[in-house]
Specification:
The structure holds two protein chains of two kinds. By secondary structure, chain A is of the alpha/beta class. Chain A is built from ten helices and twelve strands. Classes of the chains: A alpha/beta, B alpha+beta.
């Protein structure tokens, strides 16, 4: 008998992983949650049938969403993370002794419960004393915050589903308000290889550009995400991710990372021409 | 066949019709969608297949004897009415049928001036004479309110020959008049009560809502099922109480209503009625909960005022429909129409309307918490980014009209075009209104004043869409020669 998990990357492209065993199969108020043990990628988490995290390649995503802003401004002390129920982003943040407070807002408590039990590789630092977890709508949480954070990380699902509100102009505007004068916003920014994701990515970038002084896009290679080529957004009121990169300071921290390094940091902002063209379309 | 509220006779007949595989040599000519492939692909084969004509098994809207009759009886029962009519020309047709089956040319009707254009249109058509009642006005919010009982008493004494009192209940903003008292007063004086219930169709199905027209004893009501009842756009109910002859009302409806009633619209009314009977209480409970949450969040932003039942004064605000999300915006220095435009253009959020000082968002059980969060967050952002000083904001929303001619006389008079700004003291020959909400600023037969001209120019400058005049740009206006 063969058991396979298949995600439709497009209507005509499938991505499949051979499954040893399904560990979790639950429906929360917001989405369907599954955890499976696979032969090649270890344990994986899916939400509404979309792959979110695998044990084998999660380091790429979490390195890139955390260390890029932290190396741009190592003085960051107060961080807000929206989404990130698997805990991987939190795990990377807790490695910085200089960070004093991490607020995490996740709409679906069942995701966190499941990850604590079945994905300790990512959820291992959710009990760090600096971490405060809020189970509520990110859009609602951020509405009440003013001039409070050095960094906001939006570690969301796709813009179709519970994460939809996190790709809106009102959300980015509210993030701007919640950040202090040197604040940085980093978000997962979809991909542009397949047509059906292009509009969402372009719109998100355009809205960030209208809201922040600095709005750039960087990339990483994540084997299990559609096309394997994934983008992140970097927006800031003050810092440029390349001009202001604190290479020596960050390297002096001596953090061991599997994907990120400061050379790659610079390189990740060098985008392929087809992506540049898509981003320029609205400019 | 014995039907109950669990049935939907028209819908069930359509299902039978689909199964029967009957060969159509009648209209519509698309023949179940085969003749119009692009339309069929767009709307779906299921939809085209039930777009059928009147026939023996499908009954006939102009003379219902079987399934439409049964569906109308179920609708009447659902609303607590003696008779109900399925309307496919919009609630506009229902309003006009109420007025035309009650008033003939030259007869009087007591009517608040802040009615929808469809009511005054009916007066143009049938020649009835309006006796306008000044609605109360909340000066802080700049909105017209319900009808004051004292004003109605005065109008009855001055016009004992009036045939009916027309009530707009609730208003677009959700404000209700003292309907039971109005019914008692009218009936004591031999007048009918006609209710434009376009924005209150849900009153008949939920708990903790203002009284519905039929429950209050009104003689007729126009219930816009497509607004908050879940049927398709343009479908509506006309409801009759016990002292109204339904046969005569049917004749009046048939004067102007299509003889090719759409079965898509008819079945949507049928299913919406069934749904509201089965699930209405829960639907309304959820709607009120969403609206109350949105109101408290909007009021927490500061600057905005999402008003509700605290306004109740037992007179011109006798009750409030808490499913409505009406928000006063003028205190942040933005006209409602400006907030309306910003929501749509900047935040991809479409609300029902914005006028000079307020916006209205329609909330139904079709909304989710997530959409409410977007609306509230967008309003917070609009305040942060666009808030202005409120100096120079026009605040009045209601201008007391001076009626010189009946709407019909003015509409059919010889007219000339003059520039709007030079039209002071002329008698208007046409309507001018912002649409939505479609409440006339000027109606045919009314004296044009400088206040009215200023208001129109101000509304235009804020981005309101003005409709009514022959001149689409509303720079010139037709006046009675």
């Amino acid at each position: 008998m063969e058991l396979w998990f298949t995600e439709h990357h497009t209507e005509h492209v499938n991505f499949s992983l051979k499954v040893k065993e399904q560990l979790v199969n639950r429906q929360s108020d917001f989405q369907h949650i599954a955890v499976m043990d696979t032969y090649e990628f270890g344990r994986i988490l899916t939400l509404d049938g979309f792959l979110m995290v695998t044990e084998k390649d999660e380091f790429i995503y979490h390195d890139m969403i955390v260390h890029v802003p932290m190396a741009t401004n190592p003085a960051i002390k107060k961080v807000l993370v929206i989404g990130a129920g698997d805990g991987g982003t939190i795990r990377e943040l807790t490695r910085y002794q200089s960070i004093e407070q991490i607020d995490m807002v996740e709409i679906d408590s069942m995701v966190v419960d499941v990850c604590r039990e079945y994905l300790p590789q990512t959820a291992c630092k959710l009990d760090d004393p600096r971490v405060n977890i809020f189970f509520e709508d990110g859009l609602k949480f951020i509405r009440r915050r003013v001039n409070e954070y050095d960094l906001i990380i939006v570690d969301s699902t796709d813009p179709f589903g519970p994460g939809e509100g996190l790709f809106t102009k009102e959300f980015y505007g509210n993030c701007f308000k919640a950040l202090n004068d040197t604040g940085i916003l980093v978000n997962q920014h979809e991909s542009t290889f397949y047509d059906e994701y292009i509009e969402a990515m372009k719109k998100a970038h355009q809205k960030l550009k209208e809201t922040f002084k600095v709005a750039k896009v960087y990339q990483a290679h994540i084997p299990t995400y559609p096309s394997g080529h994934w983008l992140f957004g970097f927006a800031s009121k003050a810092f440029d991710p390349i001009d202001d990169l604190q290479e020596e300071k960050w390297n002096a921290l001596g953090l061991k990372t599997k994907y990120y390094n400061t050379n790659l940091h610079r390189g990740s902002f060098a985008l392929p021409n087809y992506v540049k063209e898509q981003l320029n379309e609205y400019e | 066949m014995n039907y109950t509220q669990q049935n939907s006779p028209i819908h069930e007949a359509l299902l039978r019709q689909k199964k029967s595989r009957i060969v159509p040599f009648d209209v519509p000519g698309h023949k179940g969608g085969r003749g119009t492939p692009e339309l069929t692909e767009f709307l779906g084969l299921d939809c085209l297949k039930v777009d059928v004509n009147s026939s023996k098994p499908m009954d006939n809207l102009i003379h219902p004897v079987s399934v439409i009759k049964a569906a109308e009886e179920l609708a009447a029962e659902a609303f607590g009415a003696e008779a109900a009519f399925f309307m496919v020309n919009g609630t506009t047709a229902a309003v006009q049928a109420m007025i035309m089956s009650t008033c003939k040319a030259g007869e009087k009707i007591i009517i608040p001036r802040n009615v929808h254009r469809s009511s005054i249109n009916a007066l143009v058509v049938c020649g009835a004479i309006p006796v306008y009642i000044n609605p109360g006005v909340n000066h802080k919010l700049g909105i017209p309110l319900g009808m004051s009982i004292d004003e109605i008493k005065k109008a009855i004494i001055d016009n004992p020959d009036a045939k009916a009192i027309f009530v707009n209940n609730p208003t677009y903003y959700g404000i209700c008049s003292n309907l039971k008292e109005i019914v008692a007063l009218a009936h004591q004086n031999g007048m009918r009560v006609l209710v434009d219930e376009a924005h209150g169709v849900h009153f008949s199905f939920g708990e903790e809502l203002p009284v519905s027209a039929m429950a209050a004893g009104a003689d007729m009501a126009a219930a816009s099922m497509h607004k908050t009842g879940g049927s398709l756009t343009q479908s509506s109910f006309l409801l009759c109480g016990k002292d109204v002859d339904p046969g005569y009302v049917r004749q009046i409806i048939n004067l102007t209503q299509t003889t090719s009633g759409s079965y898509l619209l008819l079945s949507s009314l049928d299913l919406a009625r069934k749904n509201m009977m089965q699930n209405g209480k829960e639907i309304i409970r959820k709607t009120i909960a969403l609206a109350e949450y949105a109101r408290s969040e909007v009021n927490n932003i500061g600057g905005y005022y999402a008003f509700s039942s605290e306004l109740i004064d037992n007179d011109t605000i006798y009750d409030f429909d808490r499913t409505k999300l009406s928000i006063h915006t003028a205190d942040i220095g933005l006209a409602g129409i400006e907030v309306f435009d910003l929501l749509r253009d900047e935040y991809d959020i479409q609300i029902e309307f914005g006028d000079i000082g307020n916006i209205l968002a329609i909330i139904t059980a079709g909304d989710r918490a997530f959409e409410i969060e977007r609306l509230v967050s967008a309003l917070a952002e609009i305040k942060r980014r666009y808030q202005k000083d409120k100096v120079g904001m026009l605040n009045h929303e209601y201008l007391d009209p001076v009626v010189v001619l009946t709407p019909q006389k003015a509409f059919y008079s010889d007219k000339k075009q003059v520039s709007l700004k030079d039209s002071v003291n002329h008698i208007s020959g046409e309507f001018v209104m912002c649409y939505p909400p479609g409440i006339p600023i000027l109606a045919p037969g009314e004296r044009i004043t400088q206040d009215i001209i200023d208001y129109i120019i101000y509304a235009k400058s804020k981005g309101s869409v003005l409709t009514g005049p022959k001149d689409m740009k509303v720079e010139r206006i037709s006046v009675v020669d």
